[in-house]
């Protein structure tokens, strides 16, 4: 059993990732942390195998926190789950030996794939006495060549944009930023950013409508 710490300042997103984790065999939630202070406390008081870490902690940037974790808890494995698309964050994460780097919003399929890759690496090492070519393939297997990345503005990730486009296309009755965020495992703010981008690209339009309780809400519709 692998004991997991979820470090995420948005409790709603943390809850989504917790639900994802429940569907992964041999993975168990040990603790959740909303800020860097709680991360360090959880690492000190719980047995943690894997840390799911967001870059944007309210009291300390995740990349700085990585340095402290590596000094004080060098045996903890780390997977970044973040909305940060800056190359500098990825470079630092690689230097600190993170196992994977997931861009929000994270779907259940992507989450499961990342966890399965992590478990395979750990189980391969556990069963291995000597390193050979087969072991290296399992540990550092090559991936398909990435698709050409379109020219997108800062803060808009191609993979996430595709998910939002697919979600929007399936909602002829329209969808709010909050509903989009819940479907994709992202915050409402992140979902709204992508929806507004699609409006600006003439791939969607929005209308102010009144909800069940009479409060206005903005719904987005595919074009």
From TrEMBL:
<dbReference type="GO" id="GO:0005737">
    <property type="term" value="C:cytoplasm"/>
</dbReference>
<dbReference type="InterPro" id="IPR051271">
    <property type="entry name" value="2C-system_Tx_regulators"/>
</dbReference>
<keyword id="KW-0010">Activator</keyword>
<feature type="modified residue" description="4-aspartylphosphate">
    <location>
        <position position="54"/>
    </location>
</feature>
<dbReference type="GO" id="GO:0000156">
    <property type="term" value="F:phosphorelay response regulator activity"/>
</dbReference>
<dbReference type="InterPro" id="IPR001789">
    <property type="entry name" value="Sig_transdc_resp-reg_receiver"/>
</dbReference>
<dbReference type="Pfam" id="PF00072">
    <property type="entry name" value="Response_reg"/>
</dbReference>
<feature type="domain" description="Response regulatory">
    <location>
        <begin position="3"/>
        <end position="119"/>
    </location>
</feature>
<keyword id="KW-0805">Transcription regulation</keyword>
<dbReference type="InterPro" id="IPR048714">
    <property type="entry name" value="DpiA-like_HTH"/>
</dbReference>
<dbReference type="Pfam" id="PF20714">
    <property type="entry name" value="HTH_64"/>
</dbReference>
<dbReference type="GO" id="GO:0003700">
    <property type="term" value="F:DNA-binding transcription factor activity"/>
</dbReference>
<keyword id="KW-0238">DNA-binding</keyword>
<dbReference type="InterPro" id="IPR011006">
    <property type="entry name" value="CheY-like_superfamily"/>
</dbReference>
<dbReference type="GO" id="GO:0003677">
    <property type="term" value="F:DNA binding"/>
</dbReference>
<keyword id="KW-0902">Two-component regulatory system</keyword>
<keyword id="KW-0963">Cytoplasm</keyword>
<keyword id="KW-0804">Transcription</keyword>
<protein>
    <submittedName>
        <fullName>Two-component system, CitB family, response regulator CitT</fullName>
    </submittedName>
</protein>
<dbReference type="InterPro" id="IPR024187">
    <property type="entry name" value="Sig_transdc_resp-reg_cit/mal"/>
</dbReference>
<keyword id="KW-0597">Phosphoprotein</keyword>
